[in-house]
Amino acid sequence: MSLKQILLNLCYRLAASPRYREIKKGVYEILEDETSHRKHLFDSFMIFLVLSTVMILVLEIKHQLPPFVYLYENIAVVIFIIEWLGRLWVSSDAHVSIIEEQQRYELEEIEPSLWMLIRPAVQQKIRFVLSPMSIIDLLAILPSYRPLRILRFFLLFRLFKIFRYTQSINFLMRVFVEKRFEFFTLLVLFAFMVFFAATVIFIFEGGGENPHVNNFFDAIYWAVVTITTVGFGDITPHTLEGRFVTIFLIVGGLGIISFVTSIITTSMTEKLNEVKAHHMMQEAGKLKQFLLVCGYSRMSEVLAETLTQEGHKFLILDTDESKIAKALKKRYLAMQADATDIALLRELQVGKKIKKAVVATEDDAINASIILSLKSIDPDIELFTRANERKNKSKLYLAGAKEVIFPYESASIAAIEYLGKPVAFDAIDNILLERHNPVIEEIEVVGGMKICGEKLSRIGIKKYHLKVMGVIRGRENRKFYFHPKADQFTLQEQDILLVIGDFEDIAAFKLRLFKG
User: Fold this and answer.
1) Among 132, 192, 180, which Cα is nearest to 160's?
2) Residue-by-residue DSSP string for 194-240
3) What is the mean pLDDT of residues 148-152?
4) C-beta atoms surrounding 120 within 10 Å
5) 20, 69, 201, 387: least buried by Cβ within 10 Å?
6) Mind listing the pLDDT tens digit for each residue in 108-129?
7) Topology, domain 180-272
8) Which has the closest alpha carbon to 159: 171, 177, 148, 143?
9) What 8-state DSSP symbol labels residue 74?
10) Domain boundaries, the chain
11) pLDDT tens, 253-307?
């Protein structure tokens, strides 16, 4: 069997191995997945490792350190090497690339050589090796090789590794990359002004008029110190022409500094919003399951207060910066984002972590668009929305909403009921909002409970002084039986009992059911 056949067999075995995929996914989660809690722990550990080894390398310049410190550093370097190899491994799927190349050549009826098969995979790995952060990782390992003392200069690159583990700094550093054209333009202007001023000062004062300007580098040094408005005073112009150039440099330097400050300030402000959004994504990634609230309206505000009181986790999305600021002020998990953004919804793991969502913006067209976006990712997601106009209720149901609330209609019905029967309304309102005992509770009949197949009269509910208000049958049709006859109604799996009674009695009854 040729080497190419051995390689292809290995690639196909790796592609068919669930264990290999699971291990690689786990390594990727630790090294690259920003939403993973394990990555945050790993990053914290690596930051400590980097700082501690840098401290060792600094201290040993003036002090004799004990042997165990050097052992610790060697272990740290081994960890750095393993980390780099791990990142190289997860940077691409070499076996998938080789298989795709083989299949492509088969379709073209070409017999590829070994190099033709592995070339794309090798190129992907080389691209990773030559990436800036990969080079920094490699240079960070070199200072540990003590026979070459000059390599200690690369100690600085070990500090740059921290950028990999601190996303906030990483985000802000991208400002210089994204604004490179503006910075390059200012750099060219800065270089021109420095060279022009240095040339002038050297012409007029480099011939002996100024004892401190002995060569062109002294002139460059003076120009840089002056244009940056530092002004050490070690070199000062002695001629009228030199003083005139100094005035020109100081004014020009202030202008350049103003431009640089303006660019950095505006860019940093934009990036800070991205940092906040990224932080919220990380916080949401730590949650196992949560409710998505799209639109921070007055209705959402009341809902958020209730959810917080009951201990439910939720994330608020809204495009209005002022509304998000208001939500953040109340310490809610909120993010300024477009809830119709499919990529964002996928990143939030709709369908996996988000099983239910409330769509409550003040625009029915936007509500429908959000519903369609959520349904396109997970057709089974439960969606609850508000209708701002009565005529749009049916459209929102067609879009995929499970329940549509028309708040003005609900408020009118409540007002009419209150005016007609104020005492009864207050009593029911207190019960529903659980302000006082008794309370209403839902109890789902799940598989394995002994009450499955039993009559209501035989489940022992009277012993706990509870009353059955009704039973909801089935999750799909959700047929409601109001106050069914206890000796005739038989409970089935997935039935939901609506019971009323004291909180302690309900808790005791539920405990009995789940204990069997």
Assistant:
1) 132
2) HHHHHHHHHHHHTTTTSTT--SHHHHHHHHHHHHTT---SSS---SH
3) 57
4) 16
5) 20
6) 888 888 888 899 999 999 999 9
7) Helix Hairpins (1.10.287)
8) 143
9) H
10) 3-165, 180-272, 287-409, 435-515
11) 888 888 888 888 887 777 777 777 777 877 787 788 899 999 998 888 888 998 8
Residues ≥6 apart with Cβ < 8 Å to 130: none
SS3 43: helix
Across the beta sheet with 403-405, what order do the strands follow? 334-336, 314-318, 291-294, 356-359, 382-386, 403-405
CATH topology for the 435-515 domain? Alpha-Beta Plaits (3.30.70)
287-409 in CATH: which number? 3.40.50.720
State the residue for tokens 């369908």.
351
As a whole number of angstroms, the distance between CA 391 and CA 376 comes to: 24
Burial 193-218 (b: 16+ CB within 10 A, else e): bbeebbbbbbebbbeeebeebeeeeb
Q: What are phi and psi of 250, to 5 degrees?
A: -60, -45
Long-range contacts made by residues 222-225, C-beta under 8 angstroms, separation at least 24? 222/198, 223/193, 223/194, 223/195, 223/197, 223/198, 223/249, 224/194
Higher pLDDT, 62 or 429: 62
Q: Tokens 């799940």, residue?
A: 446
Judged on CB neighbours under 10 Å (0-12, 13-18, 19+), 475 is exposed
